[in-house]
Predict the structure of Bifunctional protein FolD.
Amino acid sequence: MTATVLSGRDLASAIRAETSAEAAALTAAGRPPRLAVVVATADESAAWYVRSIARSAEKAGISCDVVDLGADATAGAIRERLSELSADDTVHGVILQTPLPAGAALEDLASAIAFEKDVDGAGPLSLGRLVAGLPAFAPATAEAVVAILEHHGIALTGLRVAVVGRSLVVGKPVAHLLLDRNATVTVCHSRTVDLPAVTSAADVVVAAVGRAGLITAEYVRRGAVVVDVGTNPTEDGGLVGDVDAASVAERAGALTPVPGGVGPVTTALLLRHTVRAAAR
Ligand SMILES: Nc1nc(=O)c2c([nH]1)NC[C@@H]1CN(c3ccc(C(=O)N[C@@H](CCC(=O)O)C(=O)O)cc3)C=[N+]21
């Protein structure tokens, strides 16, 4: 038996279609939606995401400015740029890519993004409101995890979910989104003792660590649902997840692929957030 593939492509297309229509209406009303993507890294995973955002934005009729400050940018220079973009009335969404140069941290810098433009939900107000259950943009990747599960009819109420990874853009926010859907959530990380024992007890495993092939069959209970958030570039220019798909597919009940799983949904949601920000 091999796991059902939980594709993100159809869901991403549906979100994009809706977003394109909203973008066209905004443009017709003289308010063309515009997203600024701030980059200060040579990281290949971020480069994949930026290319994906730029390509999808163009197709959806959203302007997308990639502001590359270089991998040597200082925290001060990044903060200044975020403040400028926050003050620019023609820009509706601002995202700062991770990773960042040494001495710069997303949790510090995201406070320079105006709350209304924080389309990747990285700032303290967005995150605080997310935890409180108040309206705010959720980090697109975290939202994509829940969206792909719901799209495939997986009801989360009462399920045990193990989230592997505690980053600001995925692990922490996704834990709260899952909790809001009445899942029982365990957040695991590099210091977790006996990680395979914890993940094997879960009905759903969300892998968001950034280490290719970390999650093998021994981490997964037979029939469990596995969501692979990893986007690890390979030597030959491809992309692989945190899940060793070949071994896990023999044990899991369902598995999101990389590419074609959480990634396309993430990009689509970021653009949806941008048109919603422009519509306000
Ligand atoms: N503040 C911040 N938020 C992030 O969400 C964030 C980040 N920084 N830094 C970099 C990583 C990486 N990441 C990806 C998202 C989608 C694809 C993606 O769309 N991948 C496609 C393949 C690429 C394509 O087809 O163009 C797929 O999985 O099918 C890749 C990588 C988000 N990240």
User: Anything to note?
Assistant: The mean pLDDT is 97. The first strand starts at residue 4 and ends at 5. The two ends are 49 Å apart (CA to CA).
